[in-house]
Design brief:
By secondary structure, the protein is α/β, with parallel strands linked by helices. Helix content is 45%, strand content 14%. The structure holds 1,4-dihydronicotinamide adenine dinucleotide. One of its GO terms (biological process) is glycosaminoglycan biosynthetic process.
């Protein structure tokens, strides 16, 4: 069987870009991305795609209607496909056994049941979603328990390593593609077929094949390692603030050791995104289930440190504003969890904004890509507030950063958008209440220049000249 038709279940941040690039590089393969959400599919078929990702518009424009299709007709797409990616969401469970830690596999199970119901002929089913180790076994159980005559399945694990904001580049020039499969002749044959698809643009030496469980665990491990680096540097940023060392200098000195490397050593308000926290919690849960409490505790610390960093930053803002933000006008620049994406899942900005709203602040929020309705949804979600109406009355969303800062007491920079570096801070300073504060949660601004303009500046991992009033009002342990 040669792969002629691919179906991807789940038109999200992973399914959409991954299949767009696959369609671009394999023009003779028909790629159909399906989703149960009519809205999402309608957006994929419109001029305004449902996700913002640099370079994505161009790729979709080239392939859509040629060999790339977005559809809600899941049945036909499954029936016709030789190879089916499952790329649905795998959030943390919010209730029941494993609540708050285990991955909720209900969407994966739903996709597997649809395949079982609709499939005909031989199918290669590929786990693209990030799943717990041995999830492929559960998928196979569902498929085989519902097997029909003339249908056979091979399950592969092919986790996705793209990062939002650089997804297209990451897909085009992947460091590696990982494919796990069953150690049988049929399993090897299925692995070879998926290798063949990727070999249209990825060199064979960058395609790693492993057993299924190694592949599933490698994805969790990779995210755990990445998040661990951020928590490690963030933990040291607290030491820097307490001692006068500068975390950027420390990161540079440490990162120049070729065994350590310089990437992912940027201290900040904390990591966000839909994956790091959920995947580490999942890893922790798996370790607990395997009766490996020491390993579980080790990885849990990465999450705890991230929570500490977000809380520490929010506390610093409040303390610097004379220990009260009640009725103060505060600007939040950036709401996405990182630059070049409109995704706000687990964004540190939500934590900061929620803390300030609880303390009675009035917020003015600007983000170049996040939809206003998304910001309101995030801040009024029942998991963060019991008073959604109060929140709505205390938040103004702006479409212009200058309007967002006009008349406010403080700016909190939560996302490292390039445009924030280029803003006219003299103009902003003139329009703000005095003393005008800036809290740079991403360490991207020119702090010396801001201080010269007159701002009271605070950042992560470095003591800057502190304002006189704050010294008088600040808590005694803060030198
Ligand atoms: P997403 O939430 O953006 O998209 C998932 C889509 O699946 C949704 O549009 C949903 O409607 C659809 N869906 C769910 N069940 C369905 C069903 N039975 N039939 C049809 N459609 C269904 O999720 P995202 O971010 O794309 O993540 C997908 C998976 O990829 C997750 O397991 C995630 O951990 C993993 N991943 C995500 C990365 C990211 O940067 N977002 C990076 C690498 C992996």
């Amino acid at each position: 069987m040669v792969i002629k038709k691919i179906c991807c279940i789940g038109a999200g941040y992973v399914g959409g870009p991954t299949c767009s690039v696959m369609a671009l590089k394999c023009p003779h393969i028909t790629v159909t991305v399906v989703d149960k959400s009519k809205d999402r599919i309608a957006q994929w078929n419109s001029d305004k795609l449902p996700i913002y990702e640099p370079g994505l518009d161009e790729v979709v424009a080239e392939c859509r209607g040629r060999n790339l299709f977005f559809s809600t007709d899941i049945e036909t797409a499954i029936k016709e496909a030789d190879l089916i990616f499952i790329s649905v969401n795998t959030p943390t469970k919010t209730f029941g056994n494993g609540k708050g830690r285990a991955a909720d596999l209900k969407y994966v199970e739903g996709a597997a049941r649809m395949i079982a119901e609709m499939a005909s002929g031989d199918k290669i089913v590929v786990e693209k979603s990030t799943v717990p180790v041995r999830a492929a076994e559960s998928i196979l159980n569902i498929l085989r328990a519902n097997n029909k005559p003339g249908v056979s399945y091979q399950i592969l694990s092919n986790p996705e390593f793209l990062a939002e904001g650089t997804a297209i580049d990451d897909l085009l020039k992947a460091d590696r593609v990982l494919i796990g499969g069953e150690d049988t002749p049929e399993g090897h044959a299925a692995v070879e077929k998926l290798c063949w698809v990727y070999e249209h643009w990825i060199s064979r030496c960058n395609i790693i094949t492993t057993n299924t469980w190694s592949s599933e665990l490698s994805k969790l491990a990779a995210n755990a390692f990445l998040a661990q680096r951020i928590s490690s540097i963030n933990s040291l940023s607290a030491v820097c603030e307490a001692t006068g060392a500068d975390i950027s200098e420390v990161a540079r000195a440490v990162g120049l050791d070729s065994r350590i490397g310089s990437k992912f050593l940027q201290a900040s308000v904390g990591f966000g995104g839909s994956c790091f926290q959920k995947d580490i919690l999942n890893l922790v849960y798996i370790c607990e289930c395997l009766n490996l409490p020491e390993v579980a505790a080790y990885w849990q610390q990465v999450i705890d440190m991230n929570e500490y960093q977000k809380s520490r930053f929010s506390a610093k803002v409040i303390e610097s504003l004379f220990n009260t933000v009640s009725d103060k006008q505060i600007t939040i620049l950036g709401f996405a969890f990182k630059k070049d994406t409109g995704d706000t899942r687990e964004s540190p900005a939500i934590h900061v904004a929620t803390t300030l709203l609880d303390e009675g602040a009035k917020l003015h929020i600007y983000d170049p890509k996040v939809e206003p309705s998304q910001i309101i949804d995030d801040l009024t979600h029942l998991s963060v507030t019991e008073e959604p109406e109060n929140v709505k009355n205390s938040v103004t969303i702006h479409s212009d950063p200058y309007a967002a800062t006009m008349g406010t007491h403080a700016i909190i920079l939560c996302t490292e958008w390039d445009e924030f570096v280029m803003l006219d801070y003299e103009r902003i300073y003139k329009g703000m209440m005095k003393p005008a504060h800036i809290f740079d949660g991403r360490k991207i601004l020119d702090h010396d220049r801001l201080i010269k303009i007159g701002f009271q500046v605070q950042t992560i991992g470095k003591r800057l000249a502190r304002p006189l009033l704050t010294r008088m009002w600040g808590s005694p342990h803060q030198a």
